[in-house]
Design brief:
Layout (H helix, E strand, L loop, with lengths): L5 H15 L11 E6 L10 H19 L3 E3 L3 E2 L4 H10 L3 H18 L10 E2 L3 H16 L3 E11 L4 E3 L4 E2 L2 E2 L7 E10 L5 H6 L9 H11 L1 E10 L6 E6 L10 E4 L13 H12 L4 H6 L4 E9 L6 E7 L10 E4 L5 H9 L8 E2 L18 E2 L10 H14 L3 E7 L4 E2 L1 E2 L5 E2 L2 E4 L4 E3 L21 H4 L5 E3 L6 E4 L3 E2 L1 H4 L3 H4 L12 H7 L4 E4 L6 H17 L10 E3 L8 E2 L5 E2 L4 E4 L2 E4 L1
Parallel strand pairs: 1-2, 1-27, 3-4, 12-14, 27-28
Antiparallel strand pairs: 5-6, 5-9, 7-8, 9-19, 10-11, 10-18, 12-15, 13-14, 16-17, 20-26, 21-26, 22-23, 22-25, 24-25, 29-30, 31-32
Bound molecules: ligand ANZ.
């Protein structure tokens, strides 16, 4: 565009909006419309993806205004997170300075677009006036038992040097660094999202304004599995190994028991060198459910057996790298004829393959390289023979319950959300470890706990932990010495409630004003990327449920209509050394691209 001067355009729009008071909310209007685009991360400059997203939202907001609605169309910054810290390490800058500079650039650029955004309502998660309230919310969740600390194996990203939530591990790799994720045992803060598994799953049916694919992704992520638990008695002091199965109908085809590398039963041989080597290898790349089923199957044969509950038969116990401790009971019976992972394992370790389901009644079936996983009729299974798979499941569960060796069980794939991050640029967790061993909340009057400005990124590890003074404090109630929590909160916590804060962004005493929130919520139109189908959208739904009672929120679902706007794509270029370059810096030469 000739003679295009962004500043002139910007000031023209601004004065037009100001004169016409476009942004002043008009509470006397009965019809309200809350239009929100997903929270931008201030990475540097706005890109075409932002332009697309915010233009779409703006058109809807304007359309609704012209139709007499009272419209809320705010903007803010999801401003904490690793890129700022990494940029700080690389360029010797402070994460705060880097972030604030990006915010100012991007804000200017957004204003040039002339979007009808109510900048009065601007929020930024790295501002202590925002994260103070997040610390209040954390304290509340702690008091309700929803925020808790436990020792567990977590996903460790060896490049970003931090823990990742399951949702942040994609095909066994860190979502940002691409590093192969390892399992590490650490003491971590969690949010008990699984308490709401059933509710989060059931309410998906009511979200009629959401794309079907997003609802399906959430459904699969929550992953309801209906089956049963069964106790198998081992020959080691009659110790029970409890397994979870969704296919109890195949119990007569069981040819091995497999337990997770960190299952408590491994205590009995934990000092064996062979086992220790196996465990180290197995935990290195066990990753997540999807990655563990794709990896090569590895097993460690223990010297122990279990007795089959319905046959006079001994079954060997293996430790296997595809069994996860945090799913079900961390133990299974393997039925190679009807499960592909079990079949691969059985072939490798020469274990029996006993078909127990056939497509045709009373007809045998031959299993070669593919397990038979379809429906059919039971064979080779004593009292279950000739029953359909469905009937056999009911029958065997009843029998298991009668014999008191197990019970029906529904489990969810969803895990509690690990929220501890060992990084500086995040919201401090308002907790102290007192010298008498008690873990106590920092009193609300002392919030926010602010990040120290002087920070050294040159040493490896958590910069807050390495800070010479910040973590040393005193309990204000008892005067006892105390150490501050040095983990910070996963930035997905920041974006799990920002839509509530937008309703009353200047509220000082509480995270949000309930009358305002009840007036504006739910967000009538939410627009964003489908890459947030699980993480952000599930966490926000969970926060809304978890806060509902405390704040007397009328809504239990935050986003009424969701539009996933699609991805703006363009070829990208890297130098031989892997450095990203702009398309304008690249010369195309007879199908070969050179970097200028
Ligand atoms: C025996 C069996 C026979 C199974 C068969 C499947 C087919 P979903 O649907 O994902 O819930 N399993 C249970 N706990 C596990 C764990 N901690 N790590 C890895 N695998 C585990 O899958 C349930 C099935 O996954 C369970 O049913 C169990 O294998 C396995 F023909 O039990 B099944």
């Amino acid at each position: 565009m000739e003679n295009y001067n962004p500043l002139v355009v910007e000031s023209k729009w601004q004065s037009f909006f100001e004169k016409n008071q476009v942004f002043k909310t008009k509470k006397h209007l009965v019809k309200k419309f809350y239009c929100l685009e997903m929270f931008p991360y201030p990475s540097g400059n706005i890109h075409m993806g932002h332009v697309r997203n915010y233009t779409l939202g703006d058109i809807i907001a304007n359309f609704k205004r012209l139709n007499g609605y009272n419209v809320l169309h705010p903007m803010g910054w999801d401003a904490f997170g690793l890129p700022a810290e990494n940029a700080a390490i690389q360029n010797n800058l402070h994460p705060k300075d880097w972030t604030l500079k990006n915010i100012s650039t991007m804000k200017k650029q957004l204003k040039c677009l002339g979007l009808s955004i109510d900048w009065d309502k601007e929020i930024s998660t790295c501002d202590s006036s925002y994260y103070k309230h997040q610390q209040i919310l954390f304290s509340l969740l702690f008091k309700k038992g929803i925020a808790y600390k436990k020792k567990s194996y977590v996903n460790w990203d060896p490049i970003d040097n931090t823990v990742l939530a399951n949702e942040q591990v994609i095909d066994g790799r860190g979502w940002r660094s691409g590093a192969i994720v390892e399992k590490k045992e650490l003491n971590q803060w969690f949010l008990n999202i699984t308490k709401y598994s059933d509710q989060l799953l059931r309410s998906l049916d009511d979200l009629k304004g959401w794309p079907e694919k997003v609802r399906l992704m959430q459904k699969n992520w929550i992953g309801k599995s209906v089956g049963c638990e069964v106790d198998f008695i081992s020959n080691f002091k009659n110790t029970k190994i409890k397994i979870f199965t969704t296919r109890p109908d195949t119990i007569f085809g069981a040819s091995f028991i497999a337990i997770a590398p960190d299952h408590p039963f491994t205590e009995y041989f934990k000092n064996e060198k062979n086992f220790q080597d196996f465990k180290e290898l197995a935990l290195k790349n066990i990753g997540t459910e999807s990655s563990s089923s794709k990896n090569e199957k590895l097993g460690f044969k223990t010297p122990f057996f279990v007795s089959h509950p319905f046959l006079n038969k001994k079954i060997p116990i293996y430790v296997a790298n595809f069994i996860l401790m945090d799913y079900g009971t961390g133990a299974i019976f393997g039925c190679p004829a009807h499960d592909q992972r079990d079949l691969e394992f059985a072939k490798k370790y020469n274990l029996e393959v006993i078909p127990v389901v056939s497509p045709n009644k009373s007809k045998s079936i031959i299993i070669n390289d593919q397990a038979y996983i379809d429906d059919g009729y039971i064979i080779n299974s004593d009292f279950l023979n000739d029953l359909s798979v469905e009937d056999a499941k009911k029958n065997i569960i009843q029998r298991i319950e009668e014999e008191e060796i197990g019970n029906s069980k529904t489990i969810y794939r969803l895990k509690d959300w690990g929220i501890s991050r060992q990084r500086y640029w995040g919201c401090p967790i308002p907790v102290m470890y007192r010298e008498d061993g008690k873990v106590v909340l920092v009193p609300e009057k002392d919030l926010p706990i602010e990040l120290p400005k002087d920070i050294d990124f040159s040493k490896p590890g958590n910069p807050l932990e390495n800070h010479p003074t910040w973590k040393y404090t005193k309990c204000p109630e008892t005067g006892m010495k105390a150490i501050r929590e040095t983990d910070t909160l996963d930035t997905f916590v920041d974006s799990s409630w920002y839509f509530l804060r937008f309703c009353s962004p200047k509220e000082n005493d509480r995270p949000f004003n309930i009358n305002e929130a009840n007036y504006w919520m739910p967000v009538d139109q939410y627009i964003g990327g489908v890459e947030h189908a699980i993480l952000h959208l599930l966490y926000s739904r969970f926060f809304t449920l978890a806060l509902q009672d405390e704040f007397k929120l009328k809504v239990s679902e935050p986003f009424k209509n969701l539009f996933t706007q699609g991805m703006v794509c363009h070829p990208t270029f890297k130098t031989e050394k892997g450095k990203w370059v702009f398309p304008k810096e690249v010369i195309e030469k007879k199908w070969i691209l050179f970097f200028r």
